[in-house]
Structures are given as C-alpha cells and as structure tokens.
Batch of 3 targets.
Target 1
Amino acid sequence: MSESRGKIIIRGKIWKYGDNVNTDVIFPGKYTYTISDPVEMGKHALEELDPEFAKRVKKGDVIVAGANFGSGSSRDQAPLSIKYAGVGAVIAESFARIFFRNAINIGLPLIINKEVARIAKAGDEIEIDFGLGKILYKDEVFVFPPFPEKILEILESGGLIQYTRKRLHIED
C-alpha cells in the first residue's frame, strides 16, 4: 500500500483474543492506584489474560479481538497500557463506547471489522492503512470507513492533548 491519505500505516504481528476482554483484564485493577507512569503500565498490559504479552509484544503489533473489547470501567489506564506496550492498533468486532473514545483520546487507533476479527490468526502479519481505510491480511484487502481528517490528526499527534497543544502552539 503505497498511497495513503494520512501518514498512519501499521504493520505487525497479530495478537488474537476473544469476546468481552474488559478493562480489568487489559490493565489489572490491582495496579489502578499504584502505577501512574504509562511506560510502567505497558509492562502489565493484558498480564492476567496473557502473561507473556507485555514481554513479547513488538512495536506496531496489532490486537485482534471479538465483540465488546474494552468493556467494564472507563479507566484510561487500559488503552494507555496497550499503547505503551507497543501495540499499533486494535481491530475488534465491536468496542465498548467509552473505551473507544479513551483510546482515540490517547492516540491508540481502533477499527471495527467483524470479518478480520473472525478470520485473523495469532502470529500472522497484518497491515493497516488508516488514511485509505484498508487492512491487508493474507493477500486480501478488507475495507473500513477511513477515519475523518480530525481523528487522523489526533492519532498522528499521539492523542488529543498533544493535538491540542500543537494547535494552540503550546510547548511542553
């Protein structure tokens, strides 16, 4: 995929999980009030569901899951832990609404695509072009509605706070 509306193209290995992966499984509740550093959060991502995940995930890898990914409490530690573990995107049959918004706000791209969620296999390679709304998996192309320009800008900036700082010319 050489042509893209945006700059976000993700290539990585698939990590496959089922339905109803909730926020307490994504980022264990026992750390909610003890870990505040996002890098440290990433070291505990999905540890109760897949103890090897945070140790073996590589930058740009993609989580593919079933329905209702991110259900449970609205803590932003869940998407933060996934992002800081190195995950480039999450594809699922569906997402909990507040998880979806929290993920976009922190710059973690999410895609709803039931077909890919059903056929993808753990360990396979996948490529996602967010500007064109295309997923390349095993020589097949799957489409999803391309993200609106503003959402692409938020994701390219690394999240809503960084996007706002950039727009207002605020230095860190």
Target 2
Amino acid sequence: MVNIDFQRARNALKTNIYSLYVIKIAKWFNLIMPTVVLFYQSNGMSMQDIFLLKSIYSVAIVLFEIPSGYLADAWGRRITLILGAVLGALGFLIYSINQVYIGFVAAEIILGLGHSFISGADTAMLFDTLKSENRAYLYLKQEGRITACGNFAEALAGIAGGLLATLSLRAPFYVQTLVAASAIPAALLLKEPALHEIRKKQTFTRLMQTIHHTLLRDSGLRSAILISSLTGTATLTFAWFVQPYFKAAGLPLPFYGLMWTLLNLSVGISGLFAAGIEKKLSEKNSLIFIVLLISAGYFLAGKIISRWGILLLFFFYGVRGLATPILKAYVNHRCESEVRASILSLRNFIIRINFAVISPILGWITDTCSLKATLWLGGAMYLAAAGTILFGSFTFPVGNQFLRK
C-alpha cells in the first residue's frame, strides 16, 4: 500500500511538472508579436489607438493581479490555472474573428484577466508540488528549466509568426488560439498538491493580514519581494528599449526579428545554469551579482550605441535569464503555502505598477533628450533602489541553506 501511494505521488509530481511546461509554452509561444502592429494598422488603428489598447491590457493585469492570487490560494491553483487557460484561448479567439476596436478592447481585458489567473499560480503550483514530496531544493533547477523553455518558445514563435503572416496578418491569431487552447488540457491534468490541500483555506481578511505582515513585519520576505520586483521592472523596461537601440545602432530592419529571436534564446540558455551559478556564489553574492550586472547592462548599453554594442544586449539578457528563477526561488522559500500565490501576485503587481509609472517618464526623456540619457538614468535608478534594499535599512538576510538538499 505504501509503495502504491508513493508511486501515485511520483506520477502526480511528473504530471504537474510536464503540464506546467505546456502551460508555459502556450503562454510564451507568441506568434502575433512580429507583425501585431501591422495587424492593428490593417484594421484602421493609429499608433495612439494601439498604445491605448496596450494600456488597457496593463490596467487589466494590475486590477486582477492580487485578487487572482487570492483566488488561487482560496480555490486552489488548479482551478485558477484552468480559468487562465480558458480565458487566454477565448481572448485570442475574439481577436481572430473580430474587426472592430471595441472587440479588441474586450479581447485585451480577457487576456489580461487570463494572464493574472496564471501569473503566480503556476509558480506556486510548481513549488508546492516539489515541497509536498520533500523536493523543494529542486525548485530553482526546475524553475530555471521552465523559464528557459518559455524563452525558447518565444524565440521560435518570432520566426514562425513571421512566416504565418506572409499568408495573412490574421493567420497568426488563428494559430495562436490553438496554441493558447493547448494549455487547457494541461491545466486539467494538474493535481492540487496535498501540501496546499491540508492548509487553512485563504480568506480575504487573511490576505490583507498577509500583505500587511509582508510589507511591515517580515523584513526577509519584504526584501525578497522588493528585490525581485525591482529587477523584474528593470528587465521589462529594458526590453522596450531594445528596438530603439537597434534603430539608433543602425541595424537594418530585416535583422530585427533575427536579433529578437537570438536575445530570447540567450535568456533561455542562461536560465538553465541558474541553479548551478547560485550554488557556487551563495545567496548574498548572487544578489550582489545580479544587481551590479543589471545596472552595468544599462550603463554599458547607454555608453556604447553601435552595431557592436548589440553584443551588450546579449550580456543583459543573459543576466536576466539567471535573475528570474533565482529571485523567484528566494521569494518562494520565504512564504507559506497557503498564501504563496497571493505573495507572488503581489510581486507581479508591484512590477506592473512600477512599469506603468516609470516607462512614460523614460519614454519622454528618450524623446526629448536621448536614448543614452534614458539608459543611464534607468541604470542609476535601479542601482540606487536595489542597493538601498540590499545594504540599507531593509538589508537582505543571508544564508542559502534552504536551497540545498
């Protein structure tokens, strides 16, 4: 009987991990990105309309991020991941058959809600699945692999999406609907970890108490969230300056898609080595390493704007591939199972809020001053904020024993 139960647990562990790989691929294999602006313009939209549409998407994510994390803890991660997968497929289906602006708005809101249901819940599901089998020490390795898989998918989708667009600008949306729908059976196959099942179910009052405790009392978890969210904001913001960098460096337009694909491949490759590098450096040194190199990436990219300088973008994206799984691991190991999805959603919420506030300012500086000034300012802001958390009043507790077997 014991052997049967053990085998069932092992099977559930494998099923969950494989299913999370499929969900990650469905989320990041984005076929529409290479030609989405052309698609919008073919439907009579101006650039102002396009940016407004993307703002609506970001607002939808911000509004739903924390509530979706609460629901993941209250209802279970499996249910919210199923909902996220269904909403993702529905959003792209609406895009595929719609030709009016209000329909695109509805699709973006649905996609934002779907993104929020998956964001946080997928990471919580992975960590608790491993922890329920006393394998939490494998989380960083698995998170690095899943993150790498997502980046590989994004890179390949750039090529595939461009080819599909030669048939029709709407063709990538048809296929994207099928890709997004592939996450539905994967989510249905998930098993809720016993670790989460036996915990006290989340209530809204408990969620508020958790957030209060996280931000005001638990300095270790607070610092982990702030460092992770600041780094997430810095890498997300930098990504939006890649194409302006290409333009300023004089890169021919036909090479944009190729370079974008290669950059995402570099993130995926470096993510595979995250666990090994963290183990060698230790927690404290890994954090210092990430903060200094992310800052250096901004400064160097601002100083050297040329075709040869594009190599610096690969340096930055390589560090990004290491930072994401390492920092997620530090957050996961400092919070309890019953509030894990809520805490991870709080992290993502902070990233989105930071980006919404900072990106328009940096965009204005780019338009009125220069790309160089913007990159230098972005690097300085990140270094100052992250340095304050690491070495100031919110000094990050060191000790990486929890990442070891």
Target 3
Amino acid sequence: MGEKIAMGFHTCVDYELAWDTAVVEEQIRAYGIRSGELEVKTEADSERMLWIECLAHLKAGVGGEIVPASPEICEDFAEKFRYRITLGGTATRAAIALDRMGYHSVLQTSCYNQYVERLMPAGIRVLPGVDRDHCRVYPHVVLQCQAGVRIHAGDIDFTTPRENRILITRDLDSLNIPVLDQAFGELLTDAEVFLLGCFSEIVDRDVLCDRVEKTKKLLSHLPKDAIVVMEDGCYVKKDFRYYVHRELASRTDVLSMNEDELQEYIGERIDLLDPDKVREALEKVRQKSGIPTILVHSAVWAVAYGEKAALMRRALEGGVTMAATRFRVGDALSPEEYARTQAMEPQARSAAFCARLAQELGNRVLCVPCKDLSGVKNPTVVGLGDAFAGGLLPGLLKQNREIS
C-alpha cells in the first residue's frame, strides 16, 4: 500500500520484429499483392490481408492497430521475421519506465504468464487480472520501420515517409480485458494519479459496457483530488471510443492521445505546425469528448488544452523527455540517459509553434517542444507513447502540481 502512482489494465507480450525489407518484398511476391489493393483498415481475415493492411499503413505513414481473425495469423506473420520478446501495453511499459527512474507504482494486469512473471520489475506491485494458471500467450506483434525505406516488389514501389509502428494482435485477454474493481480499488486509497489504459481492442459491446461500469466503481476508490489520465487509442470499433469517453468523462481529468489518434478523431490529416488547425482540432476533441483537458503528444510537440493545462508543465516536459530517451536508447533507459536527453535542445520549428500557440490561447494551453533528435542513428520507434505516459505521471503528483 502507499503507492502514489497507479495504472491499469493492459499488459501483453510483445514480439518486437526486426525489420527486414527482403522479407517484406518476398511476401508481396508470394501473395501476389498489387498496389491497387493497399487500403488502410484495421481487420484482416487472412495472412495475405494482414500484409495488405501493413503495407497500406507503411505507405501512408500512419501507425495503427490491426486485429486479425485469429491469434495464429499473428504468430505466422511474426515467424517470417527475427524478433525479441518484451512486455507491452501502455500501462505496463509506463510502469517499467517509471521503475527505471526510481518510481514505484501499482498495476493491475490483463494477463499473467511466464513472461510477465520473469520480465516485470520488482518495484512494480502487480495485481494479476486473471488466475495464475491462465497462462496462454497471445503475442502482440510489433512491426516497426524507419523513414526512407524503399519497398519495391511487383507493381508496388514506395518509400516510407516517416518512422512508424503497427501493432498486430488477436489477444483474447485484451478482447476480454478484466477490471478488478473491488480488489484493485482497495489498493488505490493513497494514489495521486491514475493512468487508465484504453479499451481499444474490445470488440464485443456487452464486454465493453461491463468493463466501463466496473471502471466507474474502481475510480470511486480514488481520493477526490487524484488526477485520472485516460490514454486513448485507435479503437477497432470506432463508435466504442466515443462511448468510453462519454461514460467516463465525469471522473476523467485528462484525455491523452497521439497525433494519429487526434487526426483519426477529427477525421482529417492536418499540418501539425499550423497553430490554427491544431487549436481547432483540440477544441473539437474537448467538446465532443466532454473531458475537460485534452493532451496530445506528437513527434514535434506535446500540448495540454483545457482546465488543467496550467498545472501540466512538469508533466509534459517529463513525457517529452522520457519518450525522447526511449527513442534514443530504447530499453537502456536510465536516470543518466534521461538527464542527457533533458539537456538536449528543442526542435527550432517546434519551439516557434509552441510560442505562437501560447500567444493565441494564453493560459488555456501549455505547449512543450520536442527534442531535436535528428542525430539519432538507430532510433526505437515502438513504445514511445507508452514512455511518454510514464514520463508524464510524476509531474502530476501533488508536489509537482503545486510547484508548476
């Protein structure tokens, strides 16, 4: 008991694929995939369709989540590549990042297996969301690719426009994500900040409604002044996203999303360095979601907009620094590497954008520029949003709210 930082519920086993252009081009030829078939969706009923989905995302420079028809499709796809096994899920990666910085937390997981038992740091108090004999592994396959990679096979010929990652999974634990409202609620009495991972993988409305009702009961155990941050996601069932926001808005202080999730929410791609477009997008999300503060983290800036924006400078700076550190050094995150990142200069164009946005919106907005990472030779592009969430949370503890 006594942890100030709490989070739930998503935990998964990630297969982080090592990119191999030759493998990708070989599969394009093997499946006879044509350029005209490339269309961004979020489902796949065969491995061929999964390759089409991935190629469409890579060509568009858009990250996302794809839920194939079976776990076996995910496993067969992964076996085409070399990969390493890590723990994933926003709440879990955030907790691991915090542990490396010396912060303890309490976490309810959505699964429990040999990898959770072996890889979870001792500084995280874990409440398994399932029985310990419920140990089947449903891999979350992470396909990551650098910018400027040419993919050329058959009539397909494009160069990836940006660093990108695509999540591929049919995880039955995540599809039925557990919420232990009473058992976990009893561990939250001292929490000052709660990170609520999204329900983006749930595809059954009855399951979603049940979990949302349990989440309401869970959040009632928090102290009244605890800050709740809901991490958004690219929902498989798009209307589920708005249902979750609407139902949990009364106890959610901050809705946090990345640039892809923002643009999916408003239904258009925008110039992230156009203050007017960004302002309009932030206001649209705030009004539609009913959540008082909207936080968006992108490759160029992190912005808080709304009621609690003025309290969030340390939180945003922490999120930006933690994500940039992961981008630089991957799992070699440490206080020393964090401090090196902290001392880095911001992107000049990002700093100029933040100054203009602050001039237009005053104390309704707080904008922090991202670091200039142009010199990083071998960046990590998976888990950046999770690292941002981890870096964000210490800045929302009471002592840092008061100082901000």
